[in-house]
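Q: For a teaching handout, I want to show students what a protein-ligand complex looks like in token form. Below are the inputs, and the small molecule is magnesium ion. Please produce the holo structure.
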Amino acid sequence: MKEFETIAAAATAMSSSGIGIIRISGEDAFSVMEKIFRPHNRNKNMAGQPSYTVHYGTIVDGEEVLDEVLVLLMRGPHSYTAEDTVEIDCHGGRLVMQRILDLVMRSGARPAEPGEFTKRAFLNGRIDLSQAEAVMDLIQSRNKMALKSSVSQLQGSVRQQIEKLRSRILYETAFLEAALDDPEHISLDGYAEKLYKTVEEIGGEIEKLLKSSENGRILREGIKTVILGKPNAGKSSLLNVLLGEERAIVTEIEGTTRDVLEEQLQLGDLSLSLLDTAGIRSTEDIVEQIGVERAKKQAEDADLILYVADSSRPLDESDEEILDLLKGKKALVLLNKSDLESAITPQMMEKRTNHKVLLISAKEEQGIRELEEEIRSLFFQGELDFNDEVLITNVRHKTALQRAKESLSMVMDSIQNGMPEDFYTIDLTDAYQALGTILGEEMGEDLINEIFGKFCMGK
Ligand SMILES: Nc1nc2c(ncn2[C@@H]2O[C@H](COP(=O)(O)OP(=O)(O)OP(=O)(O)O)[C@@H](O)[C@H]2O)c(=O)[nH]1
Ligand SMILES: [Mg+2]
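A: Here is the structure, written as tokens, with magnesium ion included.
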């Protein structure tokens, strides 16, 4: 019966701030409040107060007044958790919040687990699992686009899309089963061709969602941008210029950076996860060798590589090696140290690579705006408009969509191979169930607990 116990937690950070909010949810939320809250108007009957009302008074532990507060009442099912909920707005201070929280626990609530309030909203059917997950994404959003996408998911954009696909699949499964049960009245003549087309269409819709997940991931995690180049090319200098602070060590000694250094960078709406790496060269130094290997490894799964070359020095075999690493990747070639006399011109570089070549000077901060613009246009080429598109931002949703897509492909195979109709229903049902897991249907308790376990405290 654990799910129905009354829970409580601090909903705001426990630190010095204007106010702190303690939230209580469950059957006994109101009775806990009555035990510890003394309304300013002593004659007020708190148990009889309507939902969505705010009351001024004090929190008392016996005769001791702990704080002056406002209490908000929300009766289920019209609350976040869909249960009776009380929020105490107290002063935001570690000690005062801790003392009130202790008192709440002694008065009939137990500490909420991470994500438990949202889990209740889900278990009580107020939101589906994709919406619950959107709550977490919303809190963690690092840029406007990510925020916009999680708000739309919170409002059910993913759910609606999935429900539409599921109901189409369900219709076909039900029709097939009815026909198989009652062949005398329902004919399956010509049905396979029709089903093939429908399944192909649904598969196409799923494919579209899967494609969106790449943009979704970039929104969520930021563009993984790896700065690559030979020692001394100015990689760390570039990182510092982009960040606007002296984050990485810069010296004229080759091999200054040994390890990968990661920093977050905001370019307008875009988030970049920017990685400075060790200069690529063959070296006897074991520590540097490890650094070089790490740099190459990061480059392998980068969304974007910024290749920094020292334009005052001629190209050598290490540059060739780096140019190889750029093949098939989104990349920009940056000829750095444009303030010095050049040994490599953009024209020379353009002959060796299909990537865009830019002249910059990290030291003089030249060409940096242009670089930022190029990065933006690489990721937003006009066609990427997140306004109406449902974006899949969650890896779990992506995996489920892939499973559904595979099952639908099997249905199409069965039709093409002239298999009997009952084969179709098995795979259609699989696809239906796979999509259901996105909404939190057909899922075991363990999995549900694992998902909510990743939430933050008090949410
Ligand atoms: N003239 C000039 N010097 C630069 C420029 N950018 C960097 N430098 C200098 O080049 C040297 C190396 O810069 P770093 O940023 O440490 O180079 P790096 O690529 O990180 O080097 P490693 O960490 O050794 O791989 C430093 O002395 C910088 O001041 C530039 O645009 N113009
Ligand atoms: Mg460096």
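A: Two things your students might notice: The chain has three domains: 7-128, 135-217+394-439, 222-382. The chain has a mean pLDDT of 92.
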